[in-house]
Design brief:
heterodimer; A: about 120 residues; mainly beta; seven-stranded mixed β-sheet; four-stranded antiparallel β-sheet; 11 strands; B: mainly beta; five-stranded antiparallel β-sheet; elongated
Chain lengths: ~120, ~120
């Protein structure tokens, strides 16, 4: 089974520029997550999709961050304009179902995109 | 406030030695607790998942314990190998009304370095 794919793996931009990240989840997974992981910290949830609908975007800085999952499969996260504090690894994860009581409810993470804003 | 605290922040051990990583959480009510391994430049990979009714779970050389009364968990690594060098993240999921799982709450991780 192929894992979660992300691209690019690395990106360096100047502040105030725009950047977009792409994620392709595991085939058949209904739920997709974007996390931001600052160096030395645990991941922080930015947005959660169930199919092509947003379930939780309460921690997404909506003045500069946007995300979409138009066809309920792959997803794009955009930052416009970028700030220095956006330097982080952006992780995408997917899971088969949302909010299950089963302990088999698991999130599978991609390798991440490391963003450096200079 | 739901929080997950891990200790130590970093740890260096010699190959072949054992070690134990600690996790304290304040998440309540609690659904499950996971330990993830994150290699440098990679996404986290799940090692163990325990519900509130379980107090130990093993995965090869990794053994996780859980004390739901004291809200503490530990991850014990036996006979460490160089490939165990990674960050180990404790993750707790709250239990929502109706019994479903809430969003994962991540600790900051413990960075383990295994030296030859």
């Amino acid at each position: 089974e192929a894992g979660v794919a992300q691209s690019p793996r690395y990106k360096i931009i100047e502040k105030r520029q725009s950047v977009a990240f792409w994620c392709n989840p595991i085939s058949g997974h209904a739920t997709l997550y974007w996390y931001q992981q600052i160096l030395g910290q645990g991941p922080k949830l930015l947005i959660q999709f169930q199919n092509n609908g947003v379930v939780d975007d309460s921690q997404l800085p909506k003045d500069r961050f946007s995300a979409e999952r138009l066809k309920g499969v792959d997803s794009t996260l955009k930052i416009q304009p970028a700030k220095l504090e956006d330097s982080a690894v952006y992780l995408c994860a997917s899971s088969p179902q949302l909010g299950s009581t089963s302990i088999s409810y698991e999130q599978y993470f991609g390798p991440g995109t490391r963003l450096t804003v200079t | 406030k739901n929080q997950v605290e891990q200790s130590p922040q970093s740890l260096i051990i010699l190959e072949g030695k054992n070690c134990t990583l600690q996790c304290n959480y304040t998440v309540s009510p609690f659904s499950n607790l996971r330990w993830y391994k994150q290699d440098t430049g990679r996404g986290p990979v799940s090692l163990t998942i325990m519900t509130f009714s379980e107090n130990t779970k093993s995965n090869g050389r990794y053994t996780a314990t859980l004390d739901a009364d004291t809200k503490q968990s530990s991850l014990h690594i036996t006979a460490s190998q160089l490939s165990d060098s990674a960050s180990y993240i404790c993750v707790v999921s709250p239990r929502l009304y109706g019994g479903s799982q809430g969003n994962l709450i991540f600790g900051k991780g413990t960075k383990l370095s295994v030296k030859p």
